[in-house]
Amino acid sequence: MSGKEEIESLEKLLSKLDVKDLESVNKILYGIGCSKLEIPKIEAEDLEIQSYKFACPREQTRLPKITRVGLFQNKTPLETWAPIQEQRQALHNLAEKAIEAAAKASVNIFCFQEAWTMPFAFCTREKVPWCEYAENAEKGPTTRFLQNLALKNNMVIISPILERDEDHNDVLWNTAVVIDNHGDYFGKHRKNHIPRVGDFNESTYYMEGNTGHPVFETEFGKIAINICYGRHHPLNWLMFGINGAEIVFNPSATTGELSEPLWGIEARNAAIANSYFTCAINRVGTEIFQNEFSSGNSKPAHKDFGHFYGASYVAAPNGSRTPGLSRINNGLLVCEMDLNLCRQTKDFWGLQMTQRLDLYAKSLTAAADLYFKPQLIKKF
Amino acid sequence: MSGKEEIESLEKLLSKLDVKDLESVNKILYGIGCSKLEIPKIEAEDLEIQSYKFACPREQTRLPKITRVGLFQNKTPLETWAPIQEQRQALHNLAEKAIEAAAKASVNIFCFQEAWTMPFAFCTREKVPWCEYAENAEKGPTTRFLQNLALKNNMVIISPILERDEDHNDVLWNTAVVIDNHGDYFGKHRKNHIPRVGDFNESTYYMEGNTGHPVFETEFGKIAINICYGRHHPLNWLMFGINGAEIVFNPSATTGELSEPLWGIEARNAAIANSYFTCAINRVGTEIFQNEFSSGNSKPAHKDFGHFYGASYVAAPNGSRTPGLSRINNGLLVCEMDLNLCRQTKDFWGLQMTQRLDLYAKSLTAAADLYFKPQLIKKF
């Protein structure tokens, strides 16, 4: 345990400012055009629900394309050493309640945090028992479980899991499964960038994804998934934009004071740079493991790697964002958006028109060459 | 005039929180490792000076590479319709005082705001008299003027001007000139991405830059310049990083409530994504023009295009940042950094190692092709 008391949220602290000051602060920090969304009163135990919407002008030739997303951040309900079947069942139970709550809030697209069906155990570098959490993306128990809920609630569900690929020698992947609102398996995307940072020793378990940058054309919008560490890579975000994404989900698991100041920056910058919505979802709580492990940082071995600070949020193409969910509690963020805002923002800022892709295609091709020499200006 | 009273700064508002809350807020909003830098007391009329430094661990095999940058944001001192020679002279006088103040604070690299030798008159779309402000990058009056100050103060100076290229048919460019600490012209960089947004009708005056992404290896570090609107383009930032930049300056001129929420995000995201320091400099004040102009937004013609909100700041590779300068006053931001933090951050986060440049070289080459089809997954 970190031993210190975690603050509940940045927004709670800011709310101590007087109304006029808070208004000015919010305008600079959160942008304009995000407001509270009215939803029915929903009773859901241990689940804080917040709901927002982004403003978007009407157009003459296109109808609004209104979509509601649901971002679910949660603690693992059992001890990390609980048997796998029990752990998974407890998480499925938790998920069902969150999805039912989201359905009551008319959510169209629901997304979990990264590797949601298990503790985030990659810090341990143990293969046993964690590899046993891996499931077949198309036919595994979690996909089958969610197919029923997707069909029942007419909801697209994004389910980031540890994937076992039996068709290719049983290798593992960090994968997001997309299930459509008819309960059908729609496809999957494998995490493109794998961290080798401190406790995030994920390269022990799986390699860089081989699924490119797919955009899934659902009935509720064109969506993509940039899994966790991929949010540090602007090129990863860029390719989802180039492939036409209107909403990019960023299911994550991140901790610590080195990471937290980045959390509000990266997914939001991606929304701005690519004129799409981004949905950043972080795990919440502290997970304690049975066996101690070291963190590659000269400190003694220990049994947890710090507090997942939650704070999930949605950013709009124009750079506005919602407040974050709690840093300490399970939460569901419901956000309504008009996807027309993507193209409106492209027309306004012109970032795609002025992008000079041809220039950078050449520059990156040169830079990727083994014998590349940087454009360095020296005096002598 | 905007008619409303401008707030002085975000930080001033936040400082109304109690000490403990402010500490928590700052940690999330500004990261860790930035602290006040002690400098001698400097008397400088109408110039608010703030000074900070970033922490950086010592290494065993490399000495620290300590550099101090100075970011200067200023209002135009005369009315915009003052004769060109007078306007330029008044700006030179202001600049000299700022550079002398920076020298007293031991600044090594000094950078002005975008097009600092003139009002930001491109909103007018008038060619007369504004084109007359353009100067030869290598031998113009501003470069000659700054060469003396650079030599005298042993200071590298970055001077963003409107450039007249007499060797190529008198065309104009938006250009940053680099003068080294011996007073020698070192080189120039031309703005790569040109806005076509509302009042920022700059494509009326100059085209996209043809100087690539040069990094200037000065005695005080490897520096590059991403001019204004280029900060919206992650690929532009990326190529400066690939070419080895340790500090990238972003001299800008930006106004308005659509832009301000983005201001703290973009240069800072670039620092994180590319493991270098970024220095974001914005103009300050409201500039009023003699002839009215329209803004492409269905509103009546008017004589100003809003308040340049200053708020210049420095961001570090680890995502920490300084507070911003004032939103309303002339200011000099002095910031000390150890450039070793760049490579340390690369080693820590591994973003370059995990970047998959070869993948994106191929993806962008495909995307730039006229017959490109996006990777879109459809059900039927």
UniProtKB/TrEMBL annotation, chains A, B:
Q: Which Gene3D superfamilies does the record associate with it?
A: Carbon-nitrogen hydrolase
The UniProt entry's GO biological process terms, in alphabetical order, are:
beta-alanine biosynthetic process via 3-ureidopropionate
Enzyme Commission identifier(s): 3.5.1.6
Report any Pfam family annotated for this entry: CN_hydrolase
UniProt keywords (A-Z) are: Hydrolase
Tell me the pathway.
Amino-acid biosynthesis; beta-alanine biosynthesis
Q: State the reactions this protein catalyses.
A: 3-(carbamoylamino)propanoate + H2O + 2 H(+) = beta-alanine + NH4(+) + CO2; 3-(carbamoylamino)-2-methylpropanoate + H2O + 2 H(+) = (R)-3-amino-2-methylpropanoate + NH4(+) + CO2
Q: Name one GO molecular function term.
A: beta-ureidopropionase activity
Family, per entry? Belongs to the carbon-nitrogen hydrolase superfamily. BUP family.
This one is known as Beta-ureidopropionase
Name the source organism: Popillia japonica (Japanese beetle)
